[in-house]
# Entry
Amino acid sequence: MQKKARRARISFQHASTLAPEKRINASVITQVHGDSEEAVLEALKKTYPHWNDFVVVRVEWLT
# Structure
């Protein structure tokens, strides 16, 4: 059974593709299936498949 999707504003960091030693700060509003950190990371990986090494800074659940 798939968990209910919720909208979330996710603030995160990821490695720069041009300079991997640097971190880029970003934010996105997207659907997250579940309410765990793992669910948030899966949503980021699905939204940005060409990026990796995510560090979630903040999750704000939206109604």
Observations:
- The CA atoms of residues 19 and 37 lie 27 Å apart.
- The helical segments are 37-47.
- The chain has a mean pLDDT of 92.
